[in-house]
Amino acid sequence: MSVAPAPAARALQLFALGGLPAVEPGDDLGALIGDAIDAAALGLYAGDVVIVCQKIVSKAEGRIVRLSEVDPSPRAREFASSFDKDPALIELALREATEVLRMQGGHLITATGKGVVAANSGIDRSNQSRRGQVTLLPLDADRSAEALREALAARFGTAPAVIVTDTFGRPWRLGQIDFAIGAAGLRVLDDHLGRADWSGRRLEHTVIAVADQLAAAAGLLMGKAGGVPAVLLRGYAYSAGTETAGDLLRPREQDLFR
Amino acid sequence: MSVAPAPAARALQLFALGGLPAVEPGDDLGALIGDAIDAAALGLYAGDVVIVCQKIVSKAEGRIVRLSEVDPSPRAREFASSFDKDPALIELALREATEVLRMQGGHLITATGKGVVAANSGIDRSNQSRRGQVTLLPLDADRSAEALREALAARFGTAPAVIVTDTFGRPWRLGQIDFAIGAAGLRVLDDHLGRADWSGRRLEHTVIAVADQLAAAAGLLMGKAGGVPAVLLRGYAYSAGTETAGDLLRPREQDLFR
Predict the structure, then answer these.
(1) B14 close contact with A: CB closer than 8 A
(2) Which of A12, A139, A171, A203 has its CA 20 to 30 A from that of B224?
(3) CA triplet B155, B158, B161: central angle to 5 degrees?
(4) How far off is chain B from A225, nearest CA to CA, in Å?
(5) Is A133 within 8 Å of chain B by CB?
């Protein structure tokens, strides 16, 4: 099965996939998303991108922890008490972290897994069906994306590109936007090096983080309070490929801001 | 004239506004964008967002410099020669900078104007109609956005939200995405604090950088080589407001990564 990129897009459409039931550990996410696509009578076509938020992926994969069952270390207790944070949450974030970038001013910024940088290791307290529970990031969101891609391909006969997103803050700028933490079926970085630009000049150095732009676009419909955990995007001529969201991570030694 | 937010969006549409002539200093950007909206037979409706790239704004505003007319300082010459850069470009970037965040490893990361952080002060060499020329960021992209909003309101009878975008790299992640450097007519930060989430729980702290997400979404259609300098986005229920893109900038003293 191959994804045939659509011709150069002049228009994009994004459809909210709402109405999913509360996701529980072990749920078949492919079936739930497929049902939502059917319920919206959208069909699934070559070139479509399916974008799902981290929360439902983590829940389906059982990446849920009850805070009352976490025993905070002295380090977590000290940091938490200094800044009026939950010591169990800080403890979990430290356990999930492979690197602590900043732990000051009430902020705990870490890298996890393959190197995604996020506050509190991406641990999320909102949208929990039960109080006192949090979700951790998927163990391998690229694999989660690939599994969803395969499930949707089996059901609809065409394989969409799939992106798993999460909402993070950024240096230098206020507010959060959505980023790709998992991806399957597309080139996450679209390299414009060497293509001619509008004026026929060679472009010098433009690599677009396509998967992050797709994530941010979907984030417009996924507003936290909107009950929209997934989005179908149609009309974007992405390049098919086997890159993963891990390819979006800047190698530590090339990073000027760690 | 007021913008009436649409009901909660379940679908978004983004339309490429292409076919603009090469923009020259003094051109009437409102007329050019208005013509492109007419040519695409899109009309302009309450709740629409018009998103334009920095380059055509800078060109219309005459923010163009011929590199051969720039006399590099010794500091610019030294940095440029160490990393095989154009000394005139480095000189211009240093002149535009209000703060140098990093100047190492061939990278010059600065803050300009109100505090937008970008490589080389956002100076852009691609898509120039004449070789050896570069564009600087607009002097006040928020004012540029407001002027375009007023021009389109006068022509179409309804005022769109307007965003001016530019394409920047990010810490921690590879590739570039589009950000809002100017905005008019909307709340650029949509504060979800205190709203109930899907499960009825109060959200704790989620402020979405809506203008940046709109910019990134439009960036999907603005691919550098695509000849699409502007995008019309329809169906997003933004909150009307008088914030500017300056409100997206994290105050220096709150920034852990400078």
Answers:
(1) yes
(2) A171
(3) 105
(4) 5
(5) no
Query: CA-CA distance, A44 to A160, in Å (whole number)?
Result: 8
Under a CB-based contact definition with an 8 Å cutoff, are residues B121 and B90 in contact?
no
Three-class secondary structure of residue B32 per DSSP: helix
Counting Cβ atoms within 10 Å, is residue A254 exposed (0-12), middle (13-18) or buried (19+)?
Answer: exposed
- How far apart, in whole angstroms, are the C-alpha atoms of residue A88 and residue A68? 7
Q: For position A128, what pLDDT does the model report?
A: 57
Domains annotated on chain A, with CATH: 13-63+138-248 (3.30.1330.100), 64-133 (3.90.1660.10)
pLDDT bracket for residue A242 (50, 70, 90) = very high
Nearest residue, CB atoms, B220 vs list A12, A203, A256: A12
A105-114 own/partner pairs: CB under 8 Å, 24+ apart:
A105/B256, A106/A82, A107/B256, A108/A79, A109/B256, A111/B172, A112/A137, A113/A137, A113/A139, A113/A140, A114/A140, A114/A142, A114/A246, A114/A249
Q: Where are the alpha helices (DSSP H) in chain A?
A: 29-39, 54-60, 74-82, 87-96, 141-156, 210-219
| Residue range B87-117, pLDDT digits in tens | 999 999 999 999 999 999 889 999 998 899 9
Identity at B2, one-letter amino acid code: S
